[in-house]
Amino acid sequence: MIRILATDGIDKASGEKLRELGYELTEQFFGPDDLAGQLKGYDAVIVRSATKIDRPAIDAAVGTGRLKLIVRGGVGTDNIDVDYATKNGIEVCNTPNASSAAVAELAIAHIFTLARHLHEANVTMREGKWEKNAYSGVELAGKTLGLIGLGRIGRCVADKAKALGMDVVYYDIVGRAPGSDNYEYLEVDDLLVRADFISLHIPSYDMAVITADEIAKMKDGVYIVNCARGGLIDEDAMLDALDSGKVAGVGLDVYPEEPPKDERILKHPKISLTPHIGASTAEAQSRIGGEIVSIVSEKFGR
């Protein structure tokens, strides 16, 4: 029998579907010290963002030759050593389409939150304060949203922002994106100068892509949102810019270390925080689960 390990969970309907198809499914999280030993006994493993599959884990699995498939329920695969797995005969797949709408909606939610100080007002209201005059916001219509990255999620954000009356400009490492004539392509430096709001939709890099140099080029009072990958923004530069007023607010759903422990970020009044919930909607989880079932069935022929 084909054995599948889901370390970070899978939606109920998709788990039941895998079992109906005759797979033996185990839903249990294992930490780094235990994961390597567990992988040896499975044909496939399904992970989200919490589980890291590195070389030691892959080496352990390769020892028995049983593990043939790693599925990342989500867009990115930076928590998996994809090249090393592939070299060792283990196929790595993700579910790039399933969570785009959910992540895009969260990015837009952070933009609304920053524009109207919802993260601050919610806290002070609960503290019994009525600070009506402290939260003068800005309207989104007529503002320029700069998207760094116009892949599936970035394009979805662009469509939603345009519907709100925002002007959308974008930069993408591959250049002008096909089918994006409704949006203006700019080189990144020009985007930084023009945008009132900046939202990141790119994969992880070895270093931050928004540093003090990039922030210096931005408008005074710019807002920045990152629902993509932790580490894309230099946190020290970001905090300095928030304190100086150069950056009016930041929305974060992802962090270099999760959960984050830096009190400067956790308690900063100008930062809107969410705990990596971009894909955490019932609809997205259902779509992710459906894609996983399809990937597994195609791989093992059921």
Number of strands: 12
CATH superfamily of the largest domain: NAD(P)-binding Rossmann-like Domain
Q: From the helix content, strand content and strand pairing, which structural class follows?
A: alpha/beta
CATH architecture of the largest domain: 3-Layer(aba) Sandwich
Strand content: 15-25%
Shape: elongated
Query: Level of helix content?
Result: 25-40%
Q: Order of strands side by side in the largest beta sheet? A: 8-7-6-9-10-11-12
Tell me about the largest β-sheet.
Answer: 7 strands, parallel
Instruction: Name the helix and strand elements from N-terminus to C-terminus, one letter apiece.
Output: EHEHEHEHEHHEHEEHEHEHEHEH
**CATH top level class name of the largest domain:** Alpha Beta
Integer-rounded radius of gyration: 21 Å
Report the uncertain regions: none
> How many individual helices?
12
Our count of domains comes out at 2
At CATH level 3, the topology of the largest domain is: Rossmann fold
Distance between the termini: 12 Å
